[in-house]
Amino acid sequence: MKEVGSKKFSFSKILMYGFLTLASLLSLFPFYWMFVMATRPSAAYNSIPPTLTPGNMLVENFQKVLQQIDFFGAMWNSLILCVVVTIVVLLISSLAGFAFAKFKFPGKNILFIAILLTMIIPPQLGLIPQYFLIAKAGLLDTLQGVMILSFLNPLGIFLMRQYISGSISDELIEAAKLDGASNFKIYWKIVLPIILPAFATLGIIVFTSVWGEFLWQFTVLRDPEMYTIQVALASLNNTFKVDYGMLMSGVFWATIPLVIIFLLFNKLFIASITEGAVKS
């Protein structure tokens, strides 16, 4: 009976790993196809059957990108934008999450619900009034004008509040208060080290969302010197005849920083995901 049970368990494990492998390959295929198109001429984009093997034009296509746009300048602008927004969002969200999770004050639940309700408002709805506010403040064509409206992140506040509620006990906070620690010292010395996995998860989410955001950046930035990478790549598509090899090459190299960020914080990201499973 034990042998049969172990065989069934082994078969289920093989089936599970086979399914996960297949799902991983399917999710990675768009990135592989993007790389293939970045190494091929534009005609390969519409070829039938589709071209699935890399070519030898990766450097040539990237040189065309460099001739059309200030690629590295746009990458630098995007990097500054994403790093600043991510750091500020992490600080504001963790402080707000700490307050909502461990403090009592009038209207706490109503305020928290109001913050969550902002998540259901389409961002396009506030585009025009936000544009006039930024224009009135003299922040058009500046990275400050792009980033200032991204500092308050309702999803980040919600995630931090939930994580802090489940991972930090009230007794630990009370013990720190009895020792004379201020609220900020409790946050800095106790809360912050514990929530590093959640920091990594939220940081990856914010960084990738800001890096890939286009509409608001395109609305605020009109000076080519201030273009982020998304706006700069969109300018490659302004001609009647699109060079898809060149376009895919630019998109491919613009994706590399996201891969690097994920690899750097991969362990903390996985730790945050699996912590709930370990507790249960």
TrEMBL record:
TM region positions: 14-35, 74-98, 110-134, 146-165, 186-211, 244-265
Membrane topology: Multi-pass membrane protein
Subcellular location: Cell membrane
GO CC annotation: plasma membrane
Keyword terms, alphabetized: Cell membrane, Membrane, Transmembrane, Transmembrane helix, Transport
PROSITE patterns tied to this protein: ABC_TM1
UniProt GO BP: transmembrane transport
Protein known as: Sugar ABC transporter permease
Species, as recorded: Oceanobacillus sojae
